[in-house]
Amino acid sequence: MTDRETELAANLAQVEERISAACAAAGRKREEVTLIVVTKTYPAGDVRLLAELGVRHVAENRDQEAGPKAAECADLPLIWHFVGQLQTNKVRSVSSYADVVQSVDRKRLVDALSGAAVRAAREMGVLLQVALDVDSGERGSRGGVGPDGVESLAESVIAAEGLRLDGLMTVAPLAGPYAGRPRAAFDRLMEISSRLRAAHPAANMVSAGMSSDLEEAVAAGATHVRVGTAVLGVRPPLR
Q: Which residues are annotated with the PTM N6-(pyridoxal phosphate)lysine (predicted)?
């Protein structure tokens, strides 16, 4: 085992312990929560090591980095999640490798993703990113649609060819009433998810929580947590 593989294995084991403990504390089964490792800024070699260690879900947030990395790892049994804010001019590229796009927050993006999925003859999962730092009708500072816009955006996805509505995603907000209150933010997301599932039972995925607040996300009921730093280490600065 290389030093890097030993490091990643130890970090993964620690994260696994945290998720298991959080599930036990919340009275949930461990298999109810899926770990997504956010591999942004780290090389394809790390993705390979993670796959050898049993990781199946990986996430990226910048297409110019994600595309080549996904191509380099195309032989691995991985599910790729795109979690960054997405411009429509990157949609064609993202649709070539992403199995799930977690950051859908406007109809124009739904339409672009649908066209790209149809051209690529594949189905993509979609999560609606919910912004919890805005009033009605606005986009959040880190992307996302306000809670009151979720229903109509969901209907757009349902009607779009090549897309599958999988559920909701949020990032704990830095401003607004939920700033510094990740548990309250994730509880609010679960309320919105309950309403969505009443209309669309298959849209049951809830992606919330990162390295610093995964316990709060598990306690609230998240089905997926997105962990980068706690697995891969402190990120090198972007050049």
A: 40
